[in-house]
Amino acid sequence: MKIDYLEEYLINKFNGPVYLDDITFRDLDSFIIHMSTERNWKPNSVKQCHYALRAFFSYCQRKELISKNIADQMDPISGERKERNHLSKAEFDRLENAIKHPLVKKVVVTLFYSGMRITECLNLTIGDVDLSKNLIKVREAKNKTFREIPLHQRLKNLLEEHLSDADLKDPLVRKQRLFATSKSGKITPSYVNQIIREAKEEAGFTGKVTAHTLRHSFASRLIKKNCNLVYVQKLLGHADLRTTSVYTHAKMDDLVGSVDLL
After folding, report:
1. Nearest-5° angle of CA 208, CA 162, CA 169?
2. Alpha-carbon Rg for the chain in angstroms
3. Which of 210, 218, 219 is nearest to 248 (CA)?
4. Are 56 and 3 in contact (CB under 8 A)?
5. pLDDT digit string (tens) for 175-186?
6. What's residue 99's pLDDT?
7. Percent of the chain residues past pLDDT 90, beyond the cut
8. What separation in angstroms does the CA of 262 have from each of 166, 253, 255, 259?
9. What's the pLDDT tens digit per position in 58-67?
10. Concatenated DSSP letters for 114-169?
11. What is the pLDDT of residue 74?
């Protein structure tokens, strides 16, 4: 808890416990500077601490433990914005070829060509795939919304083959999970990520690659091909367009090419 760090800092600063009413804006300001410079906290950690302090002192004010929320006087802190890690098509092909597990390979291809979250993908039932309309229906989304994702031809071919032995008219079959082992009737995100991690090492990747990297890759490739950002938002199931905007990578080669258009 960030508030615990504040308490520790103030006890060391004043050589003893400090009452809430005795804490000043300057104390909070010096605490933030201390954590940033002495403790070497990253900008995002400092930003989270700033939010925690404002929330804590706001709560104390509502409970009438203090008369004024001194944290409101603190200047907003901009967190360090990191570009999302993503794979090119060629890099994905290397990763896919390194995966030996047949079922996980199907999951990985589905993630790369649909942009779904890993939990959304593994919660899919057979009935959520509509091959006649070329759609995947995502019912158990993060924000409790429903969306439909058009099937890329590569993904449609894979799912047609995957479902070739299933009786798609049987209601009980349609309720079964799309991706599941015969032993447990399901497959877990941690297991998928374990197989991806092993394949990543075999393929020679040095950076972090997870199931979520495939979602980033889906979005990044669409944006690089000038797909409308609102369309990408709908495909990813983001409630806020600002969340989608983090996928707008701008590498130096792209910037040089843009300048050359002048």
Report:
1. 135
2. 24
3. 219
4. yes
5. 899 999 888 888
6. 96
7. 38
8. 56, 15, 12, 6
9. 888 888 888 8
10. H---HHHHHT-BGGGEETTTTEEEE-S-TTS--EEEEPPHHHHHHHHHHTTTS-TT
11. 73
Written as six digits, the tokens of 262 are: 């002048």
Tens-digit pLDDT profile for residues 141-153: 666 778 999 999 9
The region of weakest confidence among 72-81, 132-141, 217-226 is 72-81
Alpha helical stretches, state H, the chain:
2-14, 25-37, 43-62, 89-98, 102-114, 118-122, 153-162, 171-174, 189-203, 211-224, 229-236, 241-244, 252-260
Identity of residue 108: V
Q: Which two tokens stand for residue 212?
A: 């979520």
**Token duo for residue 190:** 């941690």
Tokens describing residue 249: 């990578």
Cα distances from 133 to residues 48, 72, 155, in angstroms, run: 44, 53, 13
CA distance linking residue 141 with residue 119, whole number of Å? 8
